[in-house]
Specification:
By secondary structure, the protein is an alpha/beta fold. 39% of the residues lie in helices and 13% in strands. It has helices spanning 4-32, 64-77, 96-105, 128-140, 149-160, 191-197, 218-228, 243-246, 268-271, 274-286, 288-291, 296-307, 335-340, 357-364, and strands at 36-37, 53-58, 86-90, 110-114, 173-176, 182-183, 202-204, 207-209, 257-259, 264-267, 313-315, 321-323, 326-328, 375-376. The strands form four sheets. Strands 4-3-2-5-10-7-11 form a seven-stranded mixed β-sheet. Strands 6-12-13 form a three-stranded antiparallel β-sheet. Helix 7 crosses helix 10. The structure holds guanosine-5'-diphosphate (GDP) and magnesium ion (MG). Magnesium ion (MG) is lined by residues 178, 262, 323. Guanosine-5'-diphosphate (GDP) is lined by residues 58-60, 63, 90-91, 150, 154, 178-179, 262. One of its GO terms (cellular component) is membrane.
């Protein structure tokens, strides 16, 4: 019988050989995989080049658990390589548990801010009784979120204030994130860098048609704005104009198409521009955030279609993204979803009739594939 001592020594000397074999096998296997060739690669010296950008989240303390899953995914799929900061905003103070858990998950700096009073209250020109009656009516009619007062403050805040919060002033770009959303594909390039290098102002993943009963007078209000501020609008007959994405009858009516704003990667200087501020103030004065239920998605999207050139709006085609109940999953070229994603490409909303993405692609004369950032090497 071999004494146990010799057995241990034998095993120990065998260990390095095993490790070598495993490493060699790993290298052989890796060669089977096609390497990706990145347009937007990390600097070779290992340093991280970050843009002046942050994630921005409007959240409540009670959203914490849904948010943790989302943050974990975002970190694993993207941010652990880049360490972008997070700005958490709330109409109430964040509690210690929220701060501790979110800071724990983040590989970047975390900032916590409360909204200033004018960001979450009624402006003095709003008739609050009229607003209350309208909520009651919309609730009785079954309009989605029709009876919710806080939802209206949320939509107004996202339309006109988040980019002016003191914590956001230091940044040039934002990536809006919500609790409960999922990121289903590896994001192995820096979207903020793409925004900057390609001079993009707005990026989306999903587009949809809005519920008409939430925005009955929005388009008339927008038409007044266009008349009063023609200097802010790209003429509809210009080849750069995105106007035909939001109207099917040369501006007579709104076709309800909008970018789904729960995912946005966009320019803060655009939102802080006089053009956007004049637009928001005009809408705000009209009162539709409270007398109707104007969402920040159509508000942002109409602004983008009026003020931005086709070339300034980017479809983040290569991101797998889910917000209940819709997902966007890259479908072509096939390798994106096969090798980088966990979503089902056949389940992507893009070709569904509720989506406005094919109309967008048609108008800008591109396909999803044209928006892919990283390329498979030949
Ligand atoms: N702090 C705070 N955040 C809110 C409130 N209502 C909604 N939100 C946030 O605003 C975003 C949009 O709200 P959500 O309920 O997801 O609306 P939906 O996406 O339109 O269904 C999410 O990030 C929510 O966490 C609120 O009353 N207070
Ligand atoms: Mg949401």
């Amino acid at each position: 019988m071999i004494p146990a001592r010799y057995g241990r020594i034998g095993l120990l000397s065998f260990l390095p050989i095993c490790l070598l074999l495993i490493t060699y096998y790993g290298m052989l296997r890796k060669k089977d995989y096609t390497a990706y060739q990145y347009d937007y690669d990390h600097p070779k010296d290992g340093s991280i080049q970050r843009e002046n950008a942050a994630f921005v989240l409007l959240v409540r303390n009670e959203d914490l658990n849904d948010l943790r899953e989302t943050m974990q995914m975002l970190e694993d799929r993207f941010n652990k390589k880049y360490h972008y900061p997070y700005v958490f905003l709330n109409n109430e103070p964040f509690d210690d548990k929220f701060r501790e858990y979110t800071t724990g998950l983040s590989s970047g700096k975390t900032y916590y801010g409360q909204l200033t009073p004018e960001m979450w209250t009624y402006p003095d020109w709003i008739d609050q009784e009229k607003a209350r009656l309208s909520r009651e009516k919309m609730n009785a009619e079954g309009v989605i979120y029709g009876g919710l007062e806080s939802y209206r403050h949320m939509c107004r805040f996202q339309s006109g204030f988040f980019f002016r919060h003191p914590l956001m002033k230091q940044f040039d770009y934002y990536w809006r994130v919500e609790p409960h959303v999922k990121f289903n594909c590896d994001i192995d390039y820096d979207p903020f860098r793409v925004m900057k290098e390609k001079d993009l102002k707005y990026g989306f993943a999903i587009s949809l048609t809005e519920y008409g009963n939430t925005v009955p007078t929005l388009w008339d209000t927008v038409k007044e704005f266009i008349q009063q501020y023609p200097q802010h609008i790209i003429p509809a007959n210009s080849s750069d104009s995105l106007m035909r994405w939001i109207t099917n009858d040369d501006g007579a009516s709104y076709n309800l198409c909008h970018f789904w704003s729960n995912f946005e990667i966009a320019s803060l200087s655009w939102l802080r521009s006089q053009a956007y501020l004049d637009y928001f103030n005009h809408l705000d004065k009209a009162g539709g955030f409270f007398y109707e239920r104007w969402g920040d998605a159509p508000v942002h999207s109409i602004a983008a279609a009026l003020m931005l050139k086709k070339s300034e709006v980017h479809f983040f085609y290569d991101m797998g993204y889910y917000h209940n109940p819709f997902k966007h999953c890259p479908t072509e070229p096939e390798w994106l979803s096969v090798e980088k994603c966990s979503c089902d490409p056949t389940d992507s909303i893009d070709k569904n009739s509720w989506s406005c993405t094919s109309q967008f692609l048609q108008l800008v004369g591109k396909t999803g594939k044209d928006f892919v950032i990283t390329q498979r090497s030949k």
